[in-house]
Amino acid sequence: MKGFNLLGLTASFGGKRVIGPLSLQVNPGDKIALVGKSGAGKSTLIRLIHERVNRESSLIPQDLGLVNALSVFHNVFMGQLDRHSTWYNTLTLARPFSKDREAVHSLLQSLGMTEKLWIPAASLSGGQRQRVAIARALYRNAPVLLADEPVSALDGPMANSVMTHLRDRFTTSVIALHDVELALNYCTRIVGIHDGQVALDRPSEHLSVSDIMSLY
Amino acid sequence: MFSSPTVRTSLIFLAIAVVGLFFADIAITTANPWQDLGNFFLGIVTPNFFSSEGLMTALLRTVAFAFVGVVSGGICGFLLALVYRFLPVRMFCAFIRAIHELFWALIFLQFFGFHPLTGVLAIAIPYAGIFAKVYSEILEEADPEPGRVLPPGTGNITAFLYARIPDCWVKMRTYTAYRLECGLRSSAILGFVGLPTLGFYLEASFSQGLYSDAGAMLILFYVLIATMPLWVRPKLLPIYVLGAPFFLGEGLPIVWGNVQRFFTEDIVPAPLRNGDGLTGLMPWLSDLMINEAMPGIWNTIVLTQIALVATGILSLLAFPLISNHFGGPIRRGAGHVLLVITRSTPEYILAYILLQLWGPSMLPAIVALALHNGGIIGHLIGRQTSSIELRSDTVQGFNRYSWELVPRVYRSFLAFLFYRWEIIMRETAILGILGIYTLGFYVDSAIQNIRFDRAMVLILVTALLNIGVDTLGRYIRRKLALQTMPTC
């Protein structure tokens, strides 16, 4: 796929400008970490990018967007609703087909939560819910990943294993992260946001934790 | 305290009701009202379950009409909810739900006769209007986030089934089950206009002074409603829904000539039918307005306002009966039974019974409306107070009631009361059929005199009055920032 050039992004909230005007060039193969203070506009920026590149992206929003009443399987399956006909989706709601079951099962296996396949999302813990949203994004299998704090509720080893998955499965990604070490380890390019503007944009290999901390 | 908008609103409504009392016709006209009441209670405690075989059939028919009516109303209401954002749909729904089940029954009786369709449509039509409104509110409250993360290109139906329905399912199911209980009450009172449900047999027993038979019917009705959680189970529902249409009874066949005549002749205003044209229409309309609609509207409003305040007072007196801040488990248990009885008995049946005992005046209607609606609100508020945690060193008795509890629940109390304002008015109008001079009285008289054109105009006036009060009630609730869940 081609990269995308985002020009003049702006967003206002209650009459107050929270983003931009801001421009960002995303090249194919870029793995961008958005870092910055909370309230700097990272979530808003993820949403704006999603509006621009909707069709080609897998999204993990901060509040996950799970349907609480549906099972884990169905929440993951929702990532591919656009690839099946209405009757196929409706039948799946009542009784999933075995090939979809296997696909979702093996995906969840890689995230370490197979035994929960048929329980409703409402009864999951915070970390499990987050992994369901990640599984949905992986299942969607779009070329670009847009994620907003995708591992904030996961413990250290699990966070690292999930970040490895995301890095390997998506060629291009924009991920908002408050954990600076994860950003440096799993992303190729660090974009620092401050007061709705790009305050830093450098390859991660040239940066250290202390360089980024100046943003906070 | 008097500067608080909620208190000021309450006082204004109280003052209106007090003024209304001067204009209201309140009297006990029977010779031995207390003896009759005593006989009636004697009948309740000595129920006769075996007097006639009609009793079980009536119970079965009541359940069957409720199921078929509520389910068809629910399906239509759901479809309407999907297009509820369009103004004409909203107006249509407001209109069909502003007309009481009994008025719908009276209309359909004129051309379908005593065919089961009359009873089914009488429930299904107003319920469809209510379902459409509540379902659309539930659908609107669903979390929008799952819809946003759906892959673009997902079909509308798929998106609706995955991202909308699951989130609303529990609420919709709860509300539908609750509505089924209302449907049982509606179905029971349809008997009063001649359909083969409980009301029919209740009226027959009463008119012959068979109080023990009437008592048995009421007790079975309470048991039916109180045991609903036991017999209305998700697994059994398909059986009920598919089976119910076969238990509606045969009724009488529809005479299609009557249907045609009703629409082409009966409801056409008399002057137009007689060829007097528009010049004849104005005097006809003004006569109808001045001699029937106006007195009907006046009496309906006076009675509604008094009943509304009486309901409020009774709710505030009743909620401590079930609140766990007062009394022990035995007294609370008794309170629950009392409130279940008052809220399960349709106001129409209460008013009918009291009217038989006390004679015709507004008094039986006021007491009936206050008992039924006060029972409902008292139950809801009482349950709400039970979830309030008081500090451990707090006051007891009346001080606890007036300082700790009433101030905390007063806003939701007012919200429920104003929500039920329109319901009380709808019922007030219909109680006219029993002989109180509200709008229902004039509708019923017009139908008795086979002047359906006049009856239709009066029903239209009633509907508009209900829509007006509903709008006013919503305006007041919004002004005072009161929120509530729907009740029926």
Automatic annotation (TrEMBL), chain A:
GO cellular component, one term: plasma membrane
Gene3D superfamilies linked: P-loop containing nucleotide triphosphate hydrolases
Membrane topology designation: Peripheral membrane protein
Keywords, in A-Z order: ATP-binding, Cell inner membrane, Cell membrane, Membrane, Nucleotide-binding, Translocase, Transport
Pfam family, one: ABC_tran
Molecular function as annotated in GO: ATP binding; ATP hydrolysis activity
The protein's name: ATP-binding cassette domain-containing protein
Residue span(s) of domain ABC transporter: 4-215
Highest taxon in the source lineage: Bacteria
PANTHER family per record: AMINO ACID IMPORT ATP-BINDING PROTEIN, PHOSPHONATES IMPORT ATP-BINDING PROTEIN PHNC
Species name: Marinobacter antarcticus
Iron-sulfur found in the keyword field: no
Subcellular location: Cell inner membrane
Protein's UniProt keywords contain Lyase: no
Signal peptide: none
TrEMBL record, chain B:
GO cellular component: plasma membrane
Location(s) in or outside the cell: Cell membrane
Family annotation (InterPro entries): MetI-like_sf
Transmembrane annotation, as ranges: 55-82, 102-129, 182-202, 214-232, 239-256, 297-322, 423-443, 455-476
Claim: Transport is one of the keywords in the record: yes
Keyword field: Cell membrane, Membrane, Transmembrane, Transmembrane helix, Transport
Topological relation to the membrane, as annotated: Multi-pass membrane protein
Protein name, entry field: ABC transmembrane type-1 domain-containing protein
Organism, scientific name: marine sediment metagenome
